[in-house]
């Protein structure tokens, strides 16, 4: 399982960065989404995947017994997903507005801010 | 997308989905669920209505701008977050619970109000985003 | 609970931002609430600062969960000092915004988002949990995305796309580093990580996570090979927005680097060399960039980059003297950079342009205002009794003690190039005669404003200049404070003991 996830993480990172490096703004958003998913999978993977019980202690006991799953990576991923949801929707609206104003999808055309004014 | 099947189904689905979202919200104490998921389900209910009956009808059902839900939800979450500081001299975000659970709803406490706040914020923000994107096509 | 004082700045800004959302369309009310609220926040920050100054590090365990398990907020001297500086800068910028930002922009919830940004900054300074730091960073960048693109002009949108892409990328790298670190130590509390990272056997992975943090925060704080988003975007929004970005956004990256590299990866020899090289290159490239620019705003932007190098280099030296210099420079830099962009906004209001070629004769027309603007400009260079001079003594002393002569040379080079560029700016903008150009007709110039409006323009600049003068002439107090912070940072047991209550 870990190997499959590691390969998928690698593929998501590589394709995300490749898409960000392309010249199209739509591909920039796609790259951002892929990269965000790759990071989430990486956290999931590094949090040590186990087929364990939820870490809830019975009222009769004081410490956890047996194999249990770490809940923190999942909490982290949930937070990261919510944040990237907000950022991606902002990105979509931003790129749409930019396309409307500039009439181009090519990131190389975005060079007026570097001109001397 | 405006088929008669979707149209007649959505008018029944809207209240059912909204009820389901409240169920998910209240389930979130010890089981999977909670404010965020519940809010998304409620938002989907309105998006489905907008699909079948058009954006204007969906807005009419809402009666007010969905963006208004954001400050309301944030304020509820904020107040429940600082309530332990004001009421019980505990650090912020500490859960304070009423002693006796209420039937149907379950235990009442500041985390429940926090979740309700999250629920409203999620409905407000996701509907604002989706309406904004679909308006400016 | 007395230690709750340290999170009051968060509570105040969060409350204000929600309150302003309720009054979305009432612009005058928003202006009043924002200025009054920032005054309250300033008072609260002073209160928190004096409390921590007298009683030592305070912690708040949110949710009443004990330290390594829950999220803690730690108010040590560094954090509360930066909260105080944020409050000062926020107060000045909010007053400046009421007059300089046009109504079309204010209508999109400018003030509400502005308070959200301040909330994020305060949270990032105060938190003691590394994932919580990520969340505060996201709050900061989401608010800054809105502020940078509000108004939707062509150049603004272009800048926003670049700013968005690189900052999002930085966040993802930060999150990757965080995942690697969590996999190594299994905890998120920074004090706890600091204890557990010593036991990790695989030092390669530790260094990989350190370098990932360096890249993530490096993009945010604009160090050498990663700063290109900054000159492409910071001059596009209104001056008030640029001011708060310049003063605080890059500095929060520097703060995170200071926190991470003193607490978690302290004194690693590989990182020292890496940081020092980057610092020298940052000073060099920022300085060279500043020389060739003709727009005042762009000159100031390259100064941000140049002076970030001073702080990163001091951090790399990792001695108490160097850290004291870094903290002093940070205090000086936040105030001065905010002020510089407010000044560029004022110059724009007076002349209708910020291009040095078209400007001139400011001293002949407004001698008193020019004098006011001269103080921050000279402080930036570090003319002796003013504030930029004192931290450089510590930094130069530390670089001599550590025998890092390249960094010493870079410090001198950076100061010299600042002097040259400011001299050029002074002669072009203030002394040169006004060149014959056509002025835009529809523009509302400074001398057409009413007295109250003029006062609102000048008051924040005068306020920040006063703070700068205090930092310069009351250098003894600031030096004492910086030394205390430096001691706390170098001996990180103090921080760890306070958080984990050992």
TrEMBL record, chain A:
Record membrane topology: Multi-pass membrane protein
Stated family: Belongs to the CPA3 antiporters (TC 2.A.63) subunit C family.
Gene3D superfamilies, alphabetized: 1.10.287.3510
Compartments, record wording: Cell membrane
Transmembrane segments: 6-21, 28-49, 75-95
Species the sequence originates in: Psychroflexus aurantiacus
Protein name: Na+/H+ antiporter subunit C
Superkingdom classification of source: Bacteria
GO cellular component: plasma membrane
Key words, A-Z: Cell membrane, Membrane, Transmembrane, Transmembrane helix
UniProtKB/TrEMBL annotation, chain B:
Domain of life: Bacteria
GO CC, any one term: plasma membrane
Positions of transmembrane segments: 12-30, 36-55, 67-88, 108-133
Record InterPro entries: CPA3_antiporter_subunitB, MnhB
Keywords, in A-Z order: Cell membrane, Membrane, Transmembrane, Transmembrane helix
Membrane topology: Multi-pass membrane protein
Main location: membrane
Pfam family, one: MnhB
Domain Na+/H+ antiporter MnhB subunit-related protein stretches: 5-127
Subcellular location: Cell membrane
Family: Belongs to the CPA3 antiporters (TC 2.A.63) subunit B family.
NCBIfam families: PRK12509.1 (NF009163)
Name of the protein this chain belongs to: Multisubunit sodium/proton antiporter, MrpB subunit
Species of the source: Psychroflexus sediminis
TrEMBL record, chain C:
Record key words, sorted: Cell membrane, Membrane, Transmembrane, Transmembrane helix
Membrane topology recorded in Swiss-Prot or TrEMBL: Multi-pass membrane protein
Annotated localization: Cell membrane; Membrane
Protein name per UniProt: Multisubunit sodium/proton antiporter, MrpD subunit
UniProt organism field: Psychroflexus sediminis
GO cellular component: plasma membrane
Residue ranges of coiled coil: none
Domain NADH:quinone oxidoreductase/Mrp antiporter transmembrane: 129-418
One GO biological process term: ATP synthesis coupled electron transport
Top-level lineage group: Bacteria
Entry similarity comment: Belongs to the CPA3 antiporters (TC 2.A.63) subunit D family.
Pfam short name (any one): Proton_antipo_M
Signal sequence residues: none
Transmembrane segments: 6-25, 32-53, 73-96, 108-127, 133-152, 164-185, 205-228, 240-264, 270-292, 299-318, 324-348, 369-390, 405-426, 455-473
Any one GO molecular function term: NADH dehydrogenase (ubiquinone) activity
């Amino acid at each position: 399982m870990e190997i499959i996830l590691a390969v998928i993480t690698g593929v998501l990172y590589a394709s995300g960065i490749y898409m960000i490096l392309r010249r199209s703004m739509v591909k920039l958003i796609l790259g951002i989404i892929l990269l965000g998913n790759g990071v989430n999978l990486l956290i999931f993977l590094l949090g040590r995947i186990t087929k364990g019980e939820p870490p809830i202690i019975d009222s009769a006991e004081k410490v956890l017994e047996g194999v249990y799953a770490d809940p923190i990576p999942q909490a982290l991923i949930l937070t990261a997903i919510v944040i990237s949801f907000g950022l991606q929707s902002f990105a979509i609206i931003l790129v749409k507005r930019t396309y409307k104003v500039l009439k181009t999808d090519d990131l190389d055309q975005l060079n007026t801010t570097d001109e001397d004014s | 997308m405006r088929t008669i099947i979707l149209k007649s189904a959505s008018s029944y689905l809207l209240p059912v989905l909204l009820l389901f979202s409240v169920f998910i919200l209240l389930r979130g104490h010890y089981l999977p669920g909670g404010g965020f998921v519940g809010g998304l389900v409620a938002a989907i209910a309105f998006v489905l209505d907008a699909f079948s009956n058009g954006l204007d009808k969906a807005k009419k059902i809402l009666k007010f701008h969905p963006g208004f839900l954001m400050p309301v939800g944030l304020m509820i979450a904020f107040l429940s977050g600082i309530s332990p500081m004001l009421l019980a001299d505990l650090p912020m975000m500490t859960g304070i619970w009423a002693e006796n659970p209420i039937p149907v709803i379950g235990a009442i406490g500041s985390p429940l109000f926090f979740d309700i706040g999250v629920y409203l914020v999620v409905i407000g923000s996701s509907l604002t985003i989706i309406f904004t994107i679909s308006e400016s096509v | 609970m007395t230690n709750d004082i340290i999170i009051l700045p968060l509570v105040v800004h969060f409350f204000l931002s929600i309150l302003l959302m309720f009054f979305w369309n009432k612009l005058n009310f928003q202006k009043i609430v924002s200025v009054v609220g920032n005054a309250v926040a300033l008072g609260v920050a002073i209160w928190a600062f004096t409390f921590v100054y007298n009683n030592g590090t305070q912690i708040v365990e949110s949710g009443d969960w004990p330290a390594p398990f829950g999220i803690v907020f730690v108010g040590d001297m560094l954090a509360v000092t930066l909260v105080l500086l944020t409050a000062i800068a926020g107060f000045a910028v909010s007053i400046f915004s009421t007059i300089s930002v046009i109504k079309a922009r204010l209508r999109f919830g400018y003030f509400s988002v502005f308070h959200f940004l301040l909330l994020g900054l305060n949270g990032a300074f105060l938190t003691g949990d590394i994932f919580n730091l990520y969340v505060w960073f996201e709050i900061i960048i989401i608010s800054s995305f809105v502020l940078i693109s509000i108004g939707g002009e062509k150049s603004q949108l272009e800048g926003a796309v670049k700013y968005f892409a690189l900052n999002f990328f930085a966040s993802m790298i930060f999150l990757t580093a965080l995942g690697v670190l969590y996999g190594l130590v299994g905890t998120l509390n920074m004090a706890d990580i600091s204890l557990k990272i010593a036991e990790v056997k695989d030092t390669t992975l530790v260094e990989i996570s350190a370098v990932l943090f360096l890249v993530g925060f490096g993009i945010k704080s604009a160090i050498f090979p990663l700063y290109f988003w900054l000159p492409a975007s910071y001059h596009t929004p209104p001056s008030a927005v640029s001011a708060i970005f310049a003063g605080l956004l890059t500095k929060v990256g520097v703060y995170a680097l200071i926190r991470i590299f003193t607490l978690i990866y302290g004194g690693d020899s590989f990182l020292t060399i890496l940081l020092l090289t980057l610092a020298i290159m940052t000073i060099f490239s920022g300085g060279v960039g500043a020389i060739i620019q003709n727009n005042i705003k762009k000159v100031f932007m390259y100064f941000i980059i140049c002076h970030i190098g001073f702080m990163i280099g001091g951090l790399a030296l990792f001695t108490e003297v160097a850290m004291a210099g870094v903290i002093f420079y940070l205090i000086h830099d936040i105030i001065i950079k905010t002020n510089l962009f407010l000044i560029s906004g004022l110059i724009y209001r007076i002349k209708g342009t910020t291009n040095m070629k078209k400007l001139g004769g400011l001293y002949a027309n407004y001698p008193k205002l020019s004098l006011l603007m001269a103080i921050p400009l000279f402080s930036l260079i570090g003319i002796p009794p003013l504030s930029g001079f004192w931290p450089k003594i510590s930094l130069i002393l530390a670089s001599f003690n550590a025998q890092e002569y390249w960094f010493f040379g870079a410090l001198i080079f950076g100061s010299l190039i600042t002097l040259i560029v400011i001299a050029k700016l002074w002669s072009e903008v203030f002394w040169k005669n006004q060149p014959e150009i056509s002025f835009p007709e529809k523009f509302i110039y400074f001398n057409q404003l009413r007295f109250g409006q003029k006062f609102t323009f000048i008051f924040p600049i005068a306020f920040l200049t006063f703070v700068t003068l205090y930092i310069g002439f009351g250098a003894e107090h600031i030096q004492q404070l910086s030394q205390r912070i430096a001691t706390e940072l170098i001996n990180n047991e103090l921080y760890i003991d306070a958080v984990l209550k050992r």
